[in-house]
Amino acid sequence: MEDYQAIANQEVFINKAYNGGTVRSDSYSGGIVGGILTEKYYEGKIIRKNRNVRVANSYNVGKAHAGIVGQISYLYTGVVDIKNVYNADVGGGRPAIFGLGHVNIVNAYYVEKNDKDSSDFGTPLSAKEMKTEDFAKKMGEAFKYDANGVNNGFPIFSDKRGFDPDEPFSVKQQRLVYKALQVSVAGREIRLDNMIENVNTVLFDLRGKRVWNGTGISATIPVQKPGVYIVRNRFQMAKIVVR
Question: What range defines the domain where residue 187 resides?
Fold first, then answer.
């Protein structure tokens, strides 16, 4: 039990990693980090994981549901930082940088695609732009220009480490990113998904009257009248039309 807790609570630092293969799973999975879970059962008890996970100077040129990091549990209590990464996989319908959850992202790029996803945080560029010397410099000293085409022109690793695992990411200066609130309407019921766990979400009618409030990852809310509604919390907001 003590050994397991020591493993569960340690910090995880990933530096200069890449994926060039195919990652298959039944749900969100990332090219570099498959997923980060919150809970683990041990002898009938739930153990909370409080890992701080950091992914730096890494890239994906393979096939994965999410380019860099897959699903992050909404109950995850650690910090997930992503810095100096790029995703060259332009497959349809797949999130460019991370799959589900919230992270701190700095200097992340992906090959632009026609089908935008709500999780496509980062900066889209053309493949041509990402194969230039200027782009390799943007990625930082851990990368260099692929002059010999060994990575199909996308930046490759230099001989420099590029990042000290003890160096803070300065979270206050970074953007805390949440997956967009997903809203659907069926008759006189409003369905909310991708809510942020433990953050109060409120539904208002157009006059500003509170219709519902609650917490959780998802909710189904019956409404009595058609009209325009606004749902919001500290980090998310959406307009809903009930006909």
Answer: 182-242
Q: Is the separation of the CB atoms in 82 and 106 below 8 Å?
A: yes
* Widest distance between CA atoms in the chain: 65
Query: What are the backbone angles phi and psi of residue 232, rounded to the nearest 5°?
Result: -160, 155
Shared-domain flag, residues 75 and 165:
yes
201 plus 161 within the same structural domain: no
How would you label 155-187 residue by residue, b for 16+ Cβ within 10 Å and e otherwise?
bbbbeeebbeeeeebeeeeeeebbbbbebeeee
pLDDT digits (tens, 9 = 90+) for 39-60: 554 444 544 554 678 889 999 9
Distance CA 242, CA 79 (A): 37
Long-range (24+ apart) CB contacts under 8 A made by 178-181 are 178/102, 178/235, 178/236, 179/100, 179/101, 179/102, 179/118, 179/119, 180/118, 180/119, 180/236, 181/231, 181/236, 181/237, 181/238
192 and 107 in a single domain? The answer is no
Terminus-to-terminus CA distance in the chain, angstroms?
A: 55
Give dist(CA 26, CA 193) in Å, integer. Answer: 19
Give the helix/strand (H/E) hosting 55. Answer: strand 53-60
Q: What is the CATH number of the domain that holds 204?
A: 2.60.40.10
Look at residue 62 and tell me whether its pLDDT is greater than 50. yes
Q: Indicate if 186 and 166 belong to the same structural domain.
A: no
pTM given for the model:
0.63
Are 70 and 136 within one domain? Answer: yes
Tell me, yes or no, whether 172 and 215 share the same domain.
no
